[in-house]
Amino acid sequence: MTRDETTERILKGLSHPKAKILAHPSGRLINQRPPYELDWDKLFTFCKKHNKALEINAAPQRLDLTDILVREAVKKQIKLIINTDSHATEQMDLMQYGVTVAKRGWATKRDILNTMAYNELTSWFTS
Length: 127
Known about the structure:
The protein is about 40% helix and about 10% strand. The protein contains five helices and three strands. α3 (about 65-75) links the parallel β2 and β3 (about 80-85). The chain is globular, with a radius of gyration of 14 Å. The termini are far apart.
């Protein structure tokens, strides 16, 4: 697909009222698959307008978003969430990699959904 087609496809899926977080936002797999060609400005604008968040995937084969895109999201006040992409309990230790990417992108506690108190997070999901 073209850059515009890929962007529109993602925005269409993210338009569903129950969709609150875009996981694997660039789709990359390091040394296996390049990231999607996306109109990131358009995606960031959509996320801000519709209160959507982007995942920072901490799995070493993904590290998706990149620190550069995390920085852009932070500048635009888009919420992020750090996930490990765990398929087994021992993979929960991968969280440190996602935290490192967030720090490199200048994200702070206020930018990361899974640092919120339970009631605050619940409120965000229902807003």
